[in-house]
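Inputs:
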Amino acid sequence: DTEVTQTPKHLVMGMTNKKSLKCEQHMGHRAMYWYKQKAKKPPELMFVYSYEKLSINESVPSRFSPECPNSSLLNLHLHALQPEDSALYLCASSQDPEGSTEAFFGQGTRLTVV
Amino acid sequence: GDSVTQMEGPVTLSEEAFLTINCTYTATGYPSLFWYVQYPGEGLQLLLKATKADDKGSNKGFEATYRKETTSFHLEKGSVQVSDSAVYFCALSEGYGGSQGNLIFGKGTKLSVKP
C-alpha cells in the first residue's frame, strides 16, 4: 500500500467557518507534510512533521493550524480563512525524516473560500 | 537559497515525438533530484529520481541523468503518447541528512500531446 488518502476531496467554506482537512497513511512513514498549490503554480511547503512533532513551519499564518494526533494521521485545521487561501492542499509522507526515501503525495483537497 | 529552474511551457508535441524538458538547479549541498507529474485534477506522482551525481533515473520510458557539472536534470522520453499529457515538475531536496519530502519545485511545464 503506497497510498496517502486525503479527505475531503473538495471543500467550500465561508470566511467565518472552521473546517479541517484530513490526511492518512498506513505505510509506517514517520514524516508527513502539508503543501499548498495555487492554480498554475508549483506546490509550496507549509509544514513538516517528523516523528509526530512539528519540525518546520514555513511562516504560515496562524489561521492554518496543523495537528498530528498519531503516526498515521495529519490534520490541517482552518479558521477565518481569506479568499486568497483558495488552493489545492496536498499532503505527503516519507519513510524517514533523515533518510533518503521519496515522498508520496495524496490527491489533494481543493479548497474554495467564499 | 536552493532553487530549481525549468523550461517554461506549454509544450505541444505530436504523438511519438521526442520530448526534452530542461531543468537546472542551484544548491549549496548535494541535493537529490526528482521529476513529479501531475495529471489534471490530481495530486503529484513521483516519476523518477536520482540521489547522486551521474545517477540515471528512469520510469515508464522517461529518463533523466543527474549532471553535477552542469547542475542539470533534464527529462527525456523517446516517444510520447497522448496519455503523457500532464504538468511535469522538477524538484530537489537537500541531500544527506535532509528529508526527501521537503521539496523545492520548479514552476512546472505543461505538456500536451496531440494524436
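The radius of gyration of chain A is 13 Å. Flag for discussion at group meeting.
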